[in-house]
Amino acid sequence: MKLIGITGAIGSGKSTVALLLKEKSAIVIDADKVAREVVEPKKPAWKQIVDHFGEGILLPDGEINRRELGKRVFGHPEKLARLNEIIHPHAIAEIDRRVEQLESEFKNGQAVVIDVPLLFEAGMHTRCDLTVAVIANSEIRRERLLERGMSRSEIERRMESQEGKDILEQQADVVIENNGTLAELKEKVNELWKRIQNH
Questions:
Q1: Beta bridge partners of 4
Q2: Considering its fold, how many domains does the chain have in total?
Q3: Which residues are known binding-site members?
Q4: What is the pTM for the complete model shown?
Q5: 110: domain range?
Q6: Angle at the Cα of 102 (from 97 to 117), degrees rounded to 5?
Q7: Coil, helix or strand for 58?
Q8: Which of 49, 66, 108, 184 shows the greatest Cβ crowding within 10 Å of its Cβ?
Q9: Residues 25-47 pLDDT 10s
Q10: How many other C-beta atoms are found inside a 10 Å radius of the C-beta of residue 12?
Q11: Which carries the bigger pLDDT value, residue 137 or residue 162?
Q12: Rounded to an integer, what distance in angstroms lies between the CA atom of residue 199 and that of residue 196?
């Protein structure tokens, strides 16, 4: 089994790259989705978050109001760091569990992609056979995020909280620049897929 870590700042297109690899038969583990699962009501991470940030971040059904929590942490490095300290160990343990399960199922060259916004910061790159950073100019990323319905202030807070593309470029084995069209991105993913197959 080949474990590929894909990372990139918000709006860079990393999840699109992961989706394109899935179309080529890769199995994708979405770290954001895993992080949402580990903070479901009454789970240990949920309890730690509520204890730290208060019940004001909860929706009536007990779910964490992600938008409200985001407002409280993005733009506040110490609060964001604390939130990550709570979530990361739980999310990483769950991702590790899924990877181990897949390793027992696939003894051949099956590609497994983990789509992780904070791949290097969380130390998950050490588990990967290949790391890929998807980068895009900040203006293009802003446009994409506006199209998703984010407010300008929310976009700025989130963009400030993530690693710069220069740091990602230095750390990753492969860098995919995603400033162009989807067709151009598909070509780059085709090249990446060839590299994965030969890795």
A1: 113, 130
A2: 1
A3: 11-16
A4: 0.86
A5: 2-198
A6: 60
A7: strand
A8: 49
A9: 999 999 999 999 999 999 999 99
A10: 28
A11: 137
A12: 5
